[in-house]
Task: inverse folding
């Protein structure tokens, strides 16, 4: 009986020792370990963020997180002191001296903000396409950092624009994974612009524009109006008046270049069926292609009119053969038909007399 009791006690003692040994091993395996790099999405750093195997102490906040989208550093000594204050001890520091903390965020590029504002204003109160709007914000628009949970698109919820002053006031809402929304407000001025051909230098009247004389710039539509000239149309054209450097070209400022100028020696071209004759002449006035100008025929000393057909060339119309007037032919036909009519009348009268 005593032997059985002793055997039972020995067995229980051995079992207890094994359980204690297993528990000790589990505790050693689950000891807290410090992390070298920490990433957080909230505005605080918790115990569970800085160590592995934090246990029940994991949700306790110990530090304020860095600003959105930035990286901070924490000395290990201060982290250990903060953990001890919450009865977290025996932390394996892995001989680290500092740990880095990164705050997750969503970057909202300044260019994206400008594009969204332009899209919200497009075709509002007389404005044109978004691509033609030049925006000036009351505050510089730079890349913004939003909470990592804000994953929605920029949605305009309030848009105001005054066409007379050009002022705008727009509020956007951005949804998040948590259901909350972030609102952003932007104010400034909007001007519709168009591409215009602008003079790179001052030019005189009648001067022909070269490619180096014209550059492309965006100018307010209200400044240049609806008859703004394109660069392709301006190059090679002649200006009607003196223009200064930096001035936007209008279609009304341009004309085809003169192919004939006053007092210029020109070639008079007489052309008809079977005839092609050229004579020297002298232009009395300027003219571009298709213009009618007066020219002195240097051979006959007479002034003739012709059409400018090329550089230094004026075509003079040659009169063709004249046909008999149609009135005379009609008279002859009438005269030939008259006796027949008279004879018929006389025949009728004589029959009545009979």
Result:
């Amino acid at each position: 009986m005593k032997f059985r009791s002793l055997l039972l006690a020995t067995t229980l003692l051995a079992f207890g020792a094994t359980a204690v040994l297993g528990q000790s091993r589990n505790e050693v395996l689950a000891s807290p370990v410090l992390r070298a790099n920490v990433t957080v999405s909230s505005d605080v750093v918790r115990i569970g963020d800085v160590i592995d195997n934090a246990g029940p102490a994991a949700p306790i906040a110990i530090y304020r997180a860095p600003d959105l989208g930035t990286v901070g550093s924490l000395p290990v000594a201060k982290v250990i002191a903060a953990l001890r204050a919450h009865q977290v001890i025996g932390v394996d520091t892995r001989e680290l001296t500092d740990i880095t903390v990164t705050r997750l965020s969503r970057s909202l590029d300044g260019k994206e903000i400008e594009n969204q504002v332009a899209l919200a204003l497009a075709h509002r109160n007389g404005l044109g396409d978004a691509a033609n709007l030049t925006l000036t914000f009351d505050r510089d628009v730079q890349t913004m950092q939003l909470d990592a949970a804000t994953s929605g698109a920029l949605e305009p919820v309030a848009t105001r624009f005054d066409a007379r002053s050009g002022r705008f006031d727009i509020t956007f809402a951005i949804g998040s994974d948590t259901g909350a929304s972030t609102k952003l407000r932007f104010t400034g001025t909007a001007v519709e612009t168009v591409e215009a051909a602008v003079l790179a230098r001052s030019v005189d009247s009648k001067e022909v524009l070269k490619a180096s004389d014209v550059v492309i710039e965006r100018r307010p539509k209200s400044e240049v109006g609806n008859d703004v000239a394109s660069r392709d149309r301006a190059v090679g054209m002649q200006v009607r008046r003196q223009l200064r450097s930096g001035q936007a070209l209008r279609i009304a400022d341009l004309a085809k270049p003169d192919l004939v100028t006053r007092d210029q020696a020109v070639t008079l071209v007489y052309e008809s069926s079977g005839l092609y004759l050229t004579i020297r002449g002298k232009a009395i006035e300027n003219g571009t292609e298709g213009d009618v100008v007066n020219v002195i025929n240097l051979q006959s000393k007479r002034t003739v009119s012709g059409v400018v057909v090329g550089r230094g060339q004026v075509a003079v119309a040659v009169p063709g053969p004249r046909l008999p007037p149609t009135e005379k032919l009609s008279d002859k036909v009438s005269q030939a038909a008259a006796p027949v009519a008279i004879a018929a009348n006389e025949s009728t009268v004589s029959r009545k007399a009979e």
